[in-house]
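Researcher: Good morning. I'm working through a list of sequences from a screen, and I'd like to move beyond sequence-only analysis. For each chain I'm collecting a predicted structure so we can compare shapes side by side. This is the next one on the list. No need for commentary yet; just the structure.
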Amino acid sequence: SNGLTGKKGSIFEGGHRVPFVAVWPGKIKKNSESDVAIFGHDMVATLAALLEVGTDKTKVFDSANLLPVFKNESRKPVHQYLMHASQASGGPFYSIREGNWKLIMKTEKREKWNSLEVIGLYNLKESRVESEENNRVKDASQNSRIKRMSQKYLQLRMGLASTL
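Model: Good morning. C-alpha cells for this chain:
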C-alpha cells in the first residue's frame, strides 16, 4: 500500500488506490504519469471514443473518456465524485471523495442506507494517511461538509446523480 492506510479490500486509500498502466506507442508519452483518479468502468467510454461510437448514457452514465488524460492533454479530474465500498471486517464501509475530501461511513447491514454512521473525514491533500490524528469528523467546522457529502453519497448510490 506504499505507506497508505489500509490493505487490499479496505475502505482506506491503501485498499484500493492502485496504479493503472497504459501503453500506446505514438499516443501516450513513454514514462508519463498522471494523478487523475479513474475507475475501471471508465474504459467503456474510452473504448467507445476510440472506436468513434456512442454510449447509452442511461447505462454507462458514470463512465468518463480517458483519452485526454492518456494523451496528457488534461490533468483535470474526470469525476467530480469517487465512491468506494468495502465489505472488510467490521463493515460494510462506504466512502465518497469530493476533490481532496474523503468521507467514510459504515453500517451494520449491507445497503441499509438509513443507518449510515459517519466515521471518518480526511483531507487527502493535507495527508494521504488516513490516521485518527488526521480524522476531521469531530471538527464542528466540518459539519456542513459532512452533511452535504453524506447526502450526495445517497443521491449517487440511488442513481439519482452522476459522478461526472
